[in-house]
Structure formats: C-alpha cells, structure tokens
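During the second half of the funding period, the structural biology subgroup turned its attention to how the target accommodates small molecules. The most pressing case was F7E, which had performed well in the primary screen but for which no bound structure existed. We therefore specified the complex as follows and requested a full 3D prediction, including the ligand pose.
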Amino acid sequence: MPTKNALITGITGQDGAYLAKFLLEKGYAVYGTYRRLSTPNFWRLQYLNIFEQVVLIPADLVDAGSMVEAVKISEPDEIYHLAAQSFVGASFEQPIGTGEITGLGVTRILEAIRQINPAIKFYQASTSELYGNGHSSSLTENSPFQPSSPYAAAKLYGYWLTKMYRESYKFFACNGILFNHESPLRGLEFVTRKISNAVAKISLGLEKELHLGNLEAKRDWGYAPEYVESMWRMLKEKEPDDYVIATNEAHKVGEFVEKAFDSLGLDWQEYVEVDKRFFRPQDVNFLQGDYSKAKRKLAWRPRVKFDKLVERMVKEDLERWARWQKGERFPWDAPNYPNESNILTRTLKV
Ligand code: NAP
Ligand code: F7E
C-alpha cells in the first residue's frame, strides 16, 4: 500500500518524469498533470518504464478549474509544482503567455491548495534565472534577484507568491532555487541537449553542422536525477524554507561544445557556426550557485559534475541514433524534432 500521495504538475517534462520515478521508488502513489496536445507527449515516462505506474490527470495551468480538479482527485500529501513555460528564449516571443503559465499558474495552484487543504506540502520550481545579470561570484539564497527575461520575471512572481502563502497562511511551501540541470531527457531546444544530439548525429553522418548562439555565457550545470531528490528532501524538513541547488562550478557554453565534440574524437571548429538567430535580446552571462545551505540542512550534494554530464549525454544520444539506424523504434523525441533552420521567430530572425 502506498504511504503517501504526490501530485506532480508537469509530469511529462524532464524533472517531472525523473521525480515520478524517484517517488514511486519511495513508495508514493504518484499522480501527474498533463496538457492535452494534438500529439501526446509521454515519451519520457515510457522511456523510464513508469508510464503504467502513474495516474495522469488532464489539466492546464491557465485553467484554474482544472487545477482545482487535479488537487481534488489526487488528494495529495505533497504537490511538486514543476509545470511551466520553461524556455527562456520562448519567453521573449510569448511574454504574456509565459506570465500566465509560469507566473499566475503558481497562484492558481496555491489557491486550489488554500481552498481544498492548506496542510498539503508545496514545492515551487524556482530558478537561478531569478538572479539575472550583474553577478560575478557564487550565488546564495540571500543574493539579490534581478530578472533578465520575461521567464525570470514570471518565476520571480511565483517565488514571492510561494513565500507569501507560507507567511500569510502558514503553508508548508518551499522554493527550490535550482540552477541548470540536464540529462538525456532534457528538451531538445535547450543548449546542452541540442549539442549532445547534434554531436551524435554528426559523428554518424546524419548531420553536417551545428548552429548556436552565445558561446560565452557561463552556466552551473548539474544532473537532473540528483536535483529532483533535493525537492523531496525539502518537503521532508521540519520547517519550510528556500534552498539553492547547484554544483558551484560555472562553465562556458563553448566549453560544453568543445568537450562534447572531443568525447567522440571530433574537432568542434569544423562543425559549429555562430548564428545570430540564437542570441536572445538579453542573455544572462554568468550563473554559479553555492549549495552550502542544502548540504548543511538537507545533506544534499551534487555527484555528477560537468565532464561526466557531457559524456553521459553524448553517449546516450549516440546510442539512441545507432539503435535507430539499425531499425529499432522506441519512445524518443529526437526523430520528430525539426531542424531549427526552418524555425523563424521575432527574436530569431535570419
Ligand atoms: P520542461 O521539461 O520544459 O517541462 C515543463 C512541463 O510543464 C511539461 O510537462 C509541460 O507539458 C508542462 N507545461 C507547460 N505549459 C503548461 C501549461 N500551460 N499547463 C500545464 N502544464 C504545462 O521543464 P523541466 O526542465 O522539467 O523543469 C521543471 C520546472 O523547473 C519548470 O518549472 C522549470 O521552469 C523549472 N526549472 C528548470 C531548470 C532546469 O535547468 N531544468 C532549472 C530551474 C528551474 P508538455 O510536456 O505538454 O509540454
Ligand atoms: O541556454 C546559450 C543561451 O536554453 C543556456 C531552463 O531550464 O535553465 C534553463 O534556462 C545558455 C544561454 O538554458 C544556444 O543563450 C547559446 O546563455 O539551455 P538554455 P537557460 O536559458 O539557462 C534555467 C535555470 C531555467 O530555469 C530554465 O527553465 O546557452 N545558448 N546557443 C543557447 N541556448 C539555446 N537554447 N540554444 C542555442 O542555440
């Protein structure tokens, strides 16, 4: 018999799928919200072999009633609020939609909790993007926020609402300020997976070049399966609080590129083109997180660091494309993903 019910919003995303697997292994009954799309997006749950073990509830963050319904149906002890329009680049294209989903969506679920059962523990997926530009040293829970994109501004709203419900209504509500975390389940539009997928295809002769934007930006990249465990640990504490989750190392996008090509014996300079379509109206140049508080209070620390992460992502994409070439078919996003060369947007003009 499961001991507890967990509701994960955004169970079809990278973190949602890993967290679902983690919580199932802990004995939870796992419920997850998903959006109705013209083509279902369950590949990550299938890839992790957990699709049959979770209960799916259709809900959209812009539809308050559907969120209330999800909370009523699942009767959760814990809610992990991961659903969001999570792509920073797209938030410049769709700033209003991003505000509705990534910002106001948080209030919709907090209100559902307040009305149905204020004792539910709540995790909010906050982000290192809150810090924005203007920093050059490792960031802590006390560093100032200066959001530099519509995504970051929407997340800042969600961060404060979470804190506000904690203080006003005594909710057990935590902000996890997670720095970038990646994996073979990462969406293909994010730079790490875009690189690992392209490197794998290039090495097998399936692709000739890779177009990228700002190679100078530095990010603190960790491994997603480890980061979802920190979410659970936060909700296990006696008191609700906010925590930075990071590796305390920053690397340039260019370093990721070089390391990824290098891992398959290729020279990146022969394949990579800098393309102005992939620059943002404003980019965050440096992000590095100090996870001392999480280490001290949650006994959490990162294990997979930069080199291992790059190698792991390239290796898995290479194996997938090799299986694909042999005719094997399995749940996977890459074969259906368009070459970004034919995507035009306001900020990504040719
Ligand atoms: P992700 O892969 O992009 O997943 C986002 C999830 O949100 C997907 O399940 C998506 O559904 C769902 N979603 C999007 N719009 C929705 C809507 N209107 N209604 C309901 N669901 C909606 O993101 P992730 O990398 O797992 O990240 C999880 C959370 O952590 C996000 O809130 C993200 O902003 C935040 N975060 C991520 C990182 C990171 O480095 N990964 C770091 C800090 C914070 P579909 O599958 O239908 O698209
Ligand atoms: O960009 C640069 C880009 O899109 C990383 C989300 O999970 O982490 C993520 O946001 C860097 C940026 O992630 C390309 O300009 C260069 O400097 O992989 P990204 P992100 O913007 O850091 C945070 C913590 C979140 O909360 C978000 O939800 O890479 N870059 N060339 C590129 N980025 C992309 N996507 N594509 C390029 O071609």
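Two results from this model are relevant to the next phase. The two ends are 56 Å apart (CA to CA). Residues 4 and 28 are 5 Å apart (CA to CA).
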